[in-house]
Design goal:
Helices cover 27% and strands 26% of the residues. It is built from 13 helices and 18 strands. The protein has helices at residues 9-12, 55-58, 64-70, 79-84, 114-126, 130-144, 156-167, 173-179, 238-243, 248-252, 273-277, 306-313, 380-392, and strands at residues 21-28, 34-41, 44-47, 75-77, 96-97, 105-110, 184-189, 200-203, 210-211, 214-220, 226-234, 236-237, 258-266, 280-286, 292-298, 324-327, 352-357, 361-369. The strands form 3 sheets. Strands 1, 2, 3, 4, 5, 6, 7, 10, 11, 13 and 16 form an 11-stranded mixed β-sheet that branches. Strands 8-18-17-14-15 form a 5-stranded mixed β-sheet, with no helix packed on it. It has a two-stranded antiparallel ribbon with strand order 9-12. Strand 17 (352-357) and strand 18 form a beta hairpin. The longest helix has 15 residues, at 130-144. The chain is globular.
């Protein structure tokens, strides 16, 4: 039997509570039901749709952190009430939390940390077989180690290392994007497909080797301005991608495989891009079998600066008129055995996954097969129709 997933201010808000500028997205019930952007404040949850009916539109406004505080209009409920109705048990007659993204494209950067870069090389050489991975892990680390953070991607030292590894037959496409000049940036999920905190995440039923990826996610508008950050779980199928990098879309994009939340913390006097650069992102997985996995991703170990990755995402060759959310990658790659020795870690149904950071709060999800989740039906056509109907009312 699946354990309930309960959200509270204590297990969701940042260490400094509601001190920062926290915006989110909720589903409003009733005759004019639909999603609206909101401000989370000590006085309650406030509807921001008079400023903009979409989060993407909100992010295009100048002086956003100031304007959302000055526009507290309709109070919807308390923060505690919103969270209480956003776990696994939801009352359709009350507001409930959604992923803090609507029209923005959801992008992700891969292989941005040296340790996880080495793990990707191992996945590739193991062909997606977790039993071969440990043997290959020893061989690869003996030759290249995992302390590659001092190598600046695209530098002369990186080029020399590339030549050396090619001579030894160890060059990999993952090393190319890890220490080469061009970052790996891919589309993680369709617009509106992300799930929020308290919702189930999806693992493809054909996968036998998979894991969570705890990450910081930047919020960027169409002008390339980084406005704030949130947390994300870049749910990953290691066996699918290990068999072939051409299966990346199947390894990364399944029903419920993109979790973002619980809210966006905007940059203001209490939070900045330097806080992102120094963030510690903690992971905890609790299984029905009693297994507990803990991990941490330290952003100060990233190989590429977050703003460099933003610049490689939006530039003269790539525009995003509705803005985008950008997963920054993770240092964490679990190798701890869950069942049989040498098999490493993989999810089991019912796992509770918590991703947290001191200034960004905590994102909580429960693991299910992607095929068993409720079908995703509220896409762009439904969203446009919903906005039109509410505007006319």
């Amino acid at each position: 039997m699946a354990r309930p997933l309960i959200l509270t201010p204590e297990n969701t808000l940042p260490e400094d509570g509601l001190t920062g500028t926290l915006i989110a997205r909720v589903w409003l019930p009733g005759e004019l039901a639909g999603p609206v952007p909101v401000l989370l404040h000590e006085d309650g949850v406030f509807d921001l749709s008079p400023l903009s009916p979409t989060l993407a539109g909100l992010c295009e406004l100048e002086d956003l952190a100031v304007r959302v505080h000055d526009s507290r209009a309709q109070r919807l409920c308390s923060v505690a009430e919103l969270l209480a109705n956003s776990g696994s048990e939801r009352n359709a007659s009350r507001p409930t939390l959604l992923a803090p993204a609507d029209l923005q494209v959801i992008k992700a950067a891969g292989v941005t940390f040296a340790a996880s870069m080495v793990e990707r090389v191992i996945e590739e050489r193991a062909g997606g077989d977790p039993q071969r991975a440990e043997e290959i892990r020893v061989q690869v680390r003996e030759l290249i180690g995992d302390n590659l953070r001092s190598i600046v991607p695209g530098s002369e030292n990186a080029q020399r290392l590339k030549q050396l590894l090619q001579e030894q037959g160890l060059w990999s496409q993952y090393l190319e994007v890890g220490i080469g000049p061009d970052a790996e940036v891919f589309t993680k999920a369709p617009v509106l497909a992300a799930v929020g905190s308290g919702m189930d995440i999806g693992i493809h039923p054909g996968s036998a080797w998979n894991n969570p990826e705890p990450e910081v996610v930047l919020v960027v508008n169409s002008r390339g301005q980084v406005l704030g950050a949130t947390l994300g779980n870049d749910v990953n199928l290691r066996d699918f991608e290990g068999r072939s990098a051409l299966l990346l879309s199947k390894a990364k994009d399944n029903n419920g495989s993109c979790a973002i939340g619980p809210f966006i913390r905007l940059f203001d006097q209490s939070f900045s891009i330097d806080d992102v650069r120094n963030a510690e992102v903690d992971l905890r997985v609790e299984g029905n079998d009693g297994f507990v996995l803990k991990g941490r991703s330290s952003m100060n170990q990233i190989s590429r600066d977050p703003l460099d990755i933003v610049g490689q995402t939006l530039n003269a060759n790539h525009q995003y008129p509705d803005g985008f959310l950008l997963y920054l990658g993770t240092l964490f790659a679990p190798t701890e055995d869950r069942d049989q020795p040498g098999n490493g870690f993989t999810h089991k149904l019912g796992d509770l996954v918590s991703i947290s950071s001191r200034q960004l709060g905590a994102l909580h999800n429960r693991v299910q097969h992607s095929s068993a989740l409720a079908p995703w039906t509220f896409g762009l056509l439904a969203f446009i129709d919903n906005l039109t109907r509410r505007q006319r009312a």
